[in-house]
Structures are given as structure tokens and as C-alpha cells.
Specification:
By secondary structure, this protein is an alpha/beta fold. It has two domains: 5-47 and 125-220, no CATH class; 55-121, no CATH class. It has eight helices and seven strands; from the N terminus they run ββββααααβααααββ. The strands form two sheets. The protein has a five-stranded mixed beta sheet with strand order 3-2-1-4-5. A two-stranded antiparallel ribbon has the order 6-7. It is globular, with a radius of gyration of 17 Å. The chain starts with a strand and ends with a strand.
Length: 221
Amino acid sequence: MALVFKGIDSCKKGWVLAILAQDSIALSYINNLSNIPYKNQLTVIDMPLDCPSSIGHYPRDCDRQAKKFLGKQHSSIFYAPLKNWLKHPLSTINQVCEHHKKPKLSIQSYHLFNKINELQTNKTQHYFIESHPECIFKKWYQANLPSKKTTKGFQIRKQLIIQKLKRYNLQELNRSIEIFYNQNKHYCTNDDIIDALALALLNYEFFSKKNYIHLSKSFIY
């Protein structure tokens, strides 16, 4: 079986999957994590893999560390919910947080509950490690970045991807992003694609033992 490096990022109607190999870049839209190919090879995913089991372990230490690393951009990190919160409304969850003097769960994290549940269902069938694209990009750039929603922020991240592909002697990006986006813009955004590629490149760095950092046994950047 060919060795590939997979990264997957959630998008509004499913997931964007990037698969890197020495001679190819494959981008695809999938509607469920059960459809990820190369099941026995690692997939780096931007989604909480291990949720805390008790309020004493919330927020996760890796989330705190990631926020600290991002500094002014820390709001892009959402705290992972407790496992038993995945069945409760946000108002109930935040009453618990307030009672225990813990940070309230953000509405953005709450809106990810369906995706988090999907990952919990599939994580025993695949080999996953969690990461966060903004941590990856900041590690590569070694400075704060403009928002990825801006033209400048997007172009900087795209150039970082291009530079890394060249450095690791992987396939050139060419027009892969533009072609895929034009075919799938009803499902995803350009920055979803860039994020999936960053996660796939981190997968390569992890495999090659180059330039990656452990925040926990299942969270790297």
C-alpha cells in the first residue's frame, strides 16, 4: 500500500480531505468520516479527539497551551466539551461552568457537537491525531498572522503550503486549490482547503519526525 499523508478539516456540509503523496495531491469532499480511505494510515484532524470526562479536567490542558501559543489569535481555539455535554443544551452546560467557576463553552464549540460526535463514533475505526491549523501556520511563520479570512492572510498561508511542499520534495500545488474550490464551493471555503493541506503536511512532519510539537498524546502541531 502506498504511503500517504492525510489531513482533514470540517466544512459547512461535511469535511475537506487532503491526501499528499510523493507524486500527487488529492483533495476531496466527504460527507462522513467513515468514508476516509487508507483506514490504517494516520489522519490528522482539526476536531477534539479526546473529550474531558469530568469538570475537573475542563478545559483540557492542550487547549490552554494552544491558546497561549496563539496569543492574540487564541479565539480560534474552542475548548473541547465534556463527553456528557454532547447531549445537553448550551444553557445547561454553561450553568455547570458558572457553578464550577470554569470558562463558559463558546457557541462555536457547541455548533461543532455533531462533528465531535461523528469523530467519537469513527475514531476506533481509523488512526487519528488532533491538531489545529492556526497553530501549524504560526509555527511555520514564527509570527502572528493576519486573519485567514483576509486576502493577505490567505495568501501568506498558501505560500507557506507551497514552500513546505517544495522543501519536502512533495508534489507542487499548481492550481489544485482553485480547481477544487470551483467544483465544491457550495460545500466549503478556500480556507477549509488550506487548513486541510496544512494538517496533511503536519502529518508528513510527524511521520518524518521533523518540526512538530506534542501538546498531549493525541494533540500535535
